[in-house]
Fold these 2 entries.
Entry 1:
Amino acid sequence: MSRFPKPTIDQLRDESSLSGHAEGILNPTNEKEAAEMIRENKDLEIRFQGTRTGICGGSVPEGGLMLGTAFMKWVADPETDGDDLLSWVGAGVTLDQLEKPIRRNYPDYMWPPHPTEETATVGGIAALGSKGINACHYGETRKYIEAVKIIDRDGELHEITDPEELDRVIGSEGKDGLITQVKIRLVKKPEATWAVALFFEDEQDAAKCATEILGLFDNDPDVFITADEFLDKDSLDLLDAFREVSEALEQVPAFPEGTNAMVYAEVAGPAVKMMPSLMPLIQCAAANGGDPDKSWAQMSEQGVDQLRAVRHAISEAVNAKIARAHQEEPGIVKLGLDLAWPEKDLAEILARYRADLDASGLRSVIFGHVYNCNLHVNIIPKDLEEYERGEQLMRKWVTEGMAEGARAFDEHGMGRLKKRLLEK
Ligand SMILES: Cc1cc2nc3c(=O)[nH]c(=O)nc-3n(C[C@H](O)[C@H](O)[C@H](O)COP(=O)(O)OP(=O)(O)OC[C@H]3O[C@@H](n4cnc5c(N)ncnc54)[C@H](O)[C@@H]3O)c2cc1C
């Protein structure tokens, strides 16, 4: 019998549906304990875990031990740094656990990295460099991490403040050791935000509009686009099918008839500039074949959260669909693309994916970030044969993309699943 506590079935898998096996799980409550555990077991492979919301199997063990950060939850009082605040946060603190006290005690501030999944941990976000939908304005997660504390594979604790070392550790998927604390940089929140959903009959029109939206306020230093996301018809159909089981979608009206693509955008800035900032978005939709009368717009905090939840729900719906397929056929796990093409045009990239998908006959959804043309194509296979063909398609896109200067694993990490795309 193993001398370690046995992991639960859930602790052996992540949101990709990939599952693994391990001799046991370690759950330290502080850094001293974590260092001792790592030192005592340094001959074993140790896989670190946040809340396993990762979608590439990065936290899924292949034997050895797991070490979770579930009890490493502390948030230090912030110190000021110019206009910003800096605060040490335990690796196991989740985004919602972080956001609640910020909204309550420092309502003018925010931590920009936002992979939309509120249960993701700060340690997991730092380990992957996850950025999410706000990156089109705020950029890389690295900008909002001032320092980390990390226990290396020999059980030694280090505080890393050197910018080059931080560049290496953030996004390295736990290879350098266990991140125990992250010194996060909170920045001033925009005074007001509009969240807007624009609907199109033609997905190419939607892609063109979404691209124009990114540059709409380039001449106004006070107003900026803080989210710009694309969802195709298959995504909207899947959301409709998901309505019955999704609380987030309960209050969301039906998508307008004839819609074949949606663009979700957020524009932010001083409250006095917000009314005039809505019009350029609506005009942009109209100029690209959208019907302005069918647009949705929200400005209250609750309203913005609600519209944002629609974008988040599509990721959840896909993961739920894959989890179901995985139950029927254990070889099926998530098949999602995370390829960023900073130099390319969204409409062109979308047309490429669409042509390949149409030729393959595989069922898919396409949604994701307009910034860097990082569309997360997800294939939803009905059996193992389709899964294997889908994986071949992913491999083709990754190979072609890398040859053309795209970044292959931009925000979700490589994990165990994306590594397969490079291996065969
Ligand atoms: C519905 C949904 C939507 C999502 N949307 C987005 C999105 O828009 N953008 C995006 O980027 N991601 C997204 N994600 C993916 C996921 O939420 C992020 O990757 C998140 O940062 C993972 O955090 P976690 O705590 O769950 O990490 P885990 O999944 O537990 O771990 C992820 C990786 O980090 C390592 N790790 C975790 N904690 C530590 C630590 N303390 N020290 C060292 N290594 C560690 C693990 O070993 C593993 O390799 C989404 C996920 C879901 C389920």
Entry 2:
Amino acid sequence: MSIRYARYGLLIIIIGLVLYSALGYGSRSFEAYCPFGGAESLWGLITAGEFSCALGPLNLSLLVALLALALLSKKSFCGWACPIGFLGEIFGRLGHGAVGERFRPGNRTNNVLKLLRYVVLVAFLFLTYRTGELILRGYDPFYLLCSGFGHGTLGIISYAVIAVLAVGALLIPMFFCRYLCPLGAVFDPFSRLGLIKIARDEAACTDCGNCYAACPYDIPVHTQPLVRDRDCTNCLECLDSCPEDQVLTLQARL
Ligand code: SF4
Ligand code: SF4
């Protein structure tokens, strides 16, 4: 639990900084700090020889830094720094608290739905290339919430997007991150290779399943000697929930 408080403390500081920019107090727009804007920037540079509107070198630098972080520590950005990931987790806890039980999609359904994030990634990049505009802002929860449904939003459609994501997250923790986040799709191959990961001492494990129950992504930690899953954010919820000493540890392993 103490690890969670440290993580939430960091996330609240980051959200405060983003809101500070979003309210117009910073020297740059909050969009300058969006790492997915880095993927759109890179795509714009490759395909059109220039940055897409509202994006620039800062987005690209941020993306490169976060890909390097994913190679070092999997999707730790998603668990320790992303405001949308934080909301997905909090809504998941609220939904679980209200119903008293957590809905877990079956393994096959979960894996098929995860393919949607690649569809979203391709659609975002293709439409950005075709129009030279960030025309999908109206579907982007980070943009919609930070801009207060500002310029480029799609009225009722944008509100419906946020409502669907909120209800989805109440039912399935990390709903957007699991199934729809294009940045998560960009991180995937880097995260799969991520050096620092959760290791489980199989001989000392009692198979209680607490780690599986605690994982916001439903990763079956209790069945794996090393958590290589591309969705692992190294949030350490599993490690915190394990009743045995030193059965789960964070290790640098290939
Ligand atoms: S496996 Fe553990 S560290 Fe990875 S996402 Fe699940 S709870 Fe977090
Ligand atoms: S919580 Fe610890 S003891 Fe229980 S299954 Fe997971 S690793 Fe094993």
